[in-house]
Write a structure and sequence with these properties.
Elements: H1 9-32, H2 36-66, H3 74-100, H4 108-131, H5 140-168, H6 172-206
Length: 207
C-alpha cells in the first residue's frame, strides 16, 4: 500500500517532459508564424514555461531531500530531473538567439530540424509514462531507441544544413547567426537523447 502523501517521482518526470514538449510546440508556432511582435510575445510565454518547469524540478528535489526511501537511487532521480530540465532550457535558448540576433526570416531547414525535436519530446513523454513499470514494460526500450534514432537524424541534418549555409550564403553575419542557431537546435536534440540514455542506465542498474 502506498504511503499517505507519498510523492510519485515518475509522474514528476512526465510533468517535466510535458513542459519540454510545450516549449517545443511554442517554438514551432513561433517559427511558422514568425514576426517581431509574435517573437516578443512568445518570449514571455516561453519564459513562463521554463519557470514553471524550474518550479516542478525544485518540488521534486525538495521532496527528494525529505524522502528516506526512493523508488530508484537519489542520484539518478536528481540527474534525470536536470537532464529533462536541460531540454526546456535548450529550447528557450533557441528563441532567445532569434531575438538577440534580430533574425527576420526563419529558414525552412530550421523548421525541419524542429520537427525532429518535437517528435523526440513526444516520444520522451511516452517513455516516461512507461518508466514507472520499466521492469515489465515491453515498449520503453523501443521508445529509447526511437529517440536515439531521431538524434542521429538530427546530427546528419545539422551537418548538411550547415554545409548548405556555407555553400549558398555570401553574408558573413547570416552564416554566423544561422550556424549558431543550428548548433542550438542540435543541442535540443542532444538533450533529448541524454535524457533517454539516463533512463536506459537506470533500467540497467535496477533490472
Amino acid at each position: 500500500m502506498a504511503r499517505r502523501n507519498e510523492f510519485d517521482y515518475f509522474d514528476g518526470f512526465v510533468r517535466l517532459a510535458e513542459y519540454s514538449l510545450k516549449a517545443a510546440k511554442l517554438l514551432d508556432e513561433t517559427f511558422k508564424n514568425f514576426n517581431k511582435e509574435t517573437l516578443q510575445k512568445n518570449m514571455v510565454t516561453m519564459h513562463e514555461i521554463e519557470h514553471s518547469a524550474d518550479l516542478e524540478a525544485h518540488e521534486i528535489t525538495k521532496r527528494l531531500a525529505k524522502e528516506f526511501i526512493t523508488p530508484i537511487e537519489r542520484e539518478d532521480i536528481l540527474l534525470l530531473v536536470h537532464k529533462i530540465d536541460d531540454i526546456t532550457d535548450c529550447i528557450e535558448d533557441v528563441l532567445l538567439h532569434m531575438y538577440m540576433y534580430n533574425v527576420r526570416v526563419i529558414k525552412e531547414d530550421a523548421i525541419k530540424f524542429l520537427e525532429l525535436i518535437l517528435a523526440a519530446c513526444e516520444e520522451l513523454i511516452a517513455a516516461f509514462k512507461e518508466f514507472k513499470n520499466f521492469r515489465k514494460s515491453k515498449e520503453i526500450r523501443n521508445k529509447i531507441i526511437y529517440v536515439n534514432k531521431l538524434e542521429e537524424e538530427g546530427d546528419n541534418l545539422y551537418t548538411e544544413i550547415v554545409r548548405k549555409l556555407h555553400l549558398t550564403s555570401l553574408d558573413a553575419i547570416e552564416i554566423m547567426t544561422w550556424t549558431i542557431a543550428y548548433n542550438r537546435l542540435e543541442s535540443c536534440s542532444d538533450a533529448c537523447e541524454e535524457a533517454v540514455n539516463v533512463i536506459e542506465s537506470i533500467m540497467m542498474k535496477n533490472m
